[in-house]
Amino acid sequence: MKGLTVAVTLGLLISSIVPLQGLPIESLVVNLRKCKCAKKTSSVFDLAYLKSVRVLSPSVYCRRKEIILLTKKDRKICVDPNAPWVQELIKGLTQRQS
User: Fold this and answer.
1) Which keywords does this Swiss-Prot/TrEMBL entry list (predicted)?
2) Are strands 66-71 and 50-56 parallel, antiparallel or unpaired?
3) What was the pLDDT predicted at 20?
4) 33-98 CATH choice from 1.10.10.60, 3.40.50.1860, 2.40.50.40, 3.40.50.1370
5) Exposed/middle/buried for 90, CB within 10 Å: 0-12, 13-18, 19+?
6) In the prediction, which pLDDT does 9 show?
């Protein structure tokens, strides 16, 4: 009976913490989602080797915007979203899609 009381108390405590923080329970237990880019470059990249561009918007798991370039050799390169050439690249891709 004592073990059940402890389990119920812990369950209530955990369930009351989650709404206060506004995060899903899995992020409290294990950080399953986090920023993809540990470091980024602002160096100009040769677009002839570019296979795809992935733009990740800020979220509760990563507060910054991330842009990941995938090369034809499947190498991932994180670039600075504030670099002028990156902004031009994104602008050009957006215009091409519309």
Assistant:
1) Cytokine, Secreted, Signal
2) antiparallel
3) 40
4) 2.40.50.40
5) middle
6) 65
